[in-house]
Amino acid sequence: MTDKINELLRRVEEFKPKAAAEIEDFRIKILGKKGELNALLEEFKSVAPELKRELGQKINHLKSVATERINTLREQMQQAAADAPETEDMSRPGSAEELGSRHPISLVKNQIVEVFSRLGYTVAEGPEIEDDWHVFSALNFPPEHPARDMQDTFFVEKNPDILLRTHTSSIQVRTMEHQKPPIRVICPGRVFRNEAISYRAHCIFHQIEGLYIDEGVSFADLKQSLLYFAKEIFGEQTAIRMRPSYFPFTEPSAEVDVSCNLCGGKGCPVCKGTGWLEIMGCGMVDPNVLKANGIDPEKYSGFAFGMGIERIAMLKYGVKDLRLYFENDVRFLHQFDTAL
Fold first, then answer.
1. Cα–Cα distance between 75 and 96 in angstroms, integer?
2. Domain that holds residue 34
3. CATH, residue 234
4. 132, 236, 282, 334: most buried, per Cβ within 10 A?
């Protein structure tokens, strides 16, 4: 048995592999469950008691040497591979990189901005973390308005109130603070509200709002602008209707519906059989808002409107679950590859 141990030790010490695969094969052959070392251990069970101490030490030494030798050879092989110069066949044809696509929210936002840019609107931006003045007070929200409640707003600090903006109207306030009329801006951005997440609502969503202030601006100008927008986004056959509503910052105010582009206005489950789909709110800028922002309401008038980009994208692409926009499922996003 001593001869077998010595012979195996010699083979371990003289082993010189040419590839990493040979090292693994050698390890299995020597140290594997059915390897030669285990065979020696089985034979060791039957040796005379007086020889067990000596042979046991030799077997342990063999195992230690074999393990160390294999680990050393692995490290040497890995280092040699790392130090080897990279070789590349320059004659091989190149492989085209797989291009991604814009997110459907970005696609729709860009389309909306492009439509209003034809009417002379420029893009304005503002911070997502705002104060009470720009989100509520400057927009004629009374102190007891429910939108100020913790159930609707994510507050960062209190006294003074610092919060995540609940609408991009705060950008309109900042524009009026630093720009004199005429003002014609479109304000896209991400907003936050403390709402339960479902197929039709989310705590994070995207809005795009518009503001036009000048001398002699009327409700007729507002209606014509929104009709032009609806036809450009949903198709020339699209009709709109305006229903009286209430917003603190506009008076008069209206909700805007478009004819359902899925059923052609005939009625379907998406439009709940009405033939109409709500897309935005709008109205004439309240004189109190103009005063709060240093604009003379006797000289100037204007209108404002705001819409959820997710809502427009759902109607445009027939998406029925709002959560899909936030899950980053490539199977969903790849459907918009051709929309670039």
1. 35
2. 2-83
3. 3.30.930.10
4. 282
Per-residue pLDDT reduced to its tens digit, 100-144: 778 999 999 999 999 999 999 999 999 999 999 999 999 998 888
89 located within any domain: no
**67 and 128 part of one domain:** no
Q: Got the DSSP string for 160-171?
A: TTEEE-SSTHHH
Residues 34 and 108 reside in one and the same domain: no
Which amino acid is it at 35? G
Beta bridge partners of 152: none
310 with 267, same domain: the answer is yes
* Whether 192 and 274 share a structural domain: yes
Let me know: does 308 contact 327? Beta carbons within 8 Å. no
How far is it, in rounded angstroms, from Cα 35 to Cα 25? 11
Residues in the chain predicted with pLDDT less than 70, given as ranges, are 84-87, 150-151, 270, 337-340
Residue 153 CA to residue 140 CA, distance in Å, equals 17
Distances in Å between the Cα of 261 and the Cα atoms of 35, 49, 242 are: 73, 93, 17
* Same domain? 195 vs 284: yes
Pairing assessment for the beta strands 122-123 and 183-192 based on DSSP bridges: parallel
Asked if 204 and 325 sit in the same domain, the reply is yes
Coil, helix or strand at residue 155: strand
Which ranges constitute the DSSP H helices of the chain?
Answer: 2-14, 20-31, 36-44, 49-83, 104-117, 132-135, 169-178, 219-234, 287-292, 309-317, 330-333
φ, ψ of residue 124 in degrees (nearest 5): -120, 145
Same domain for 243 and 328, yes or no, is yes
Residues 109 and 252 in one domain: yes
Amino acid (one-letter) located at 182: P
Q: How buried is 191 (Cβ within 10 angstroms: 0-12 exposed, 13-18 middle, 19+ buried)?
A: buried
Query: Based on the structure, what is the number of domains in the chain?
Result: 2
pTM value > 0.85? no
Q: Is residue 96 part of a domain?
A: no
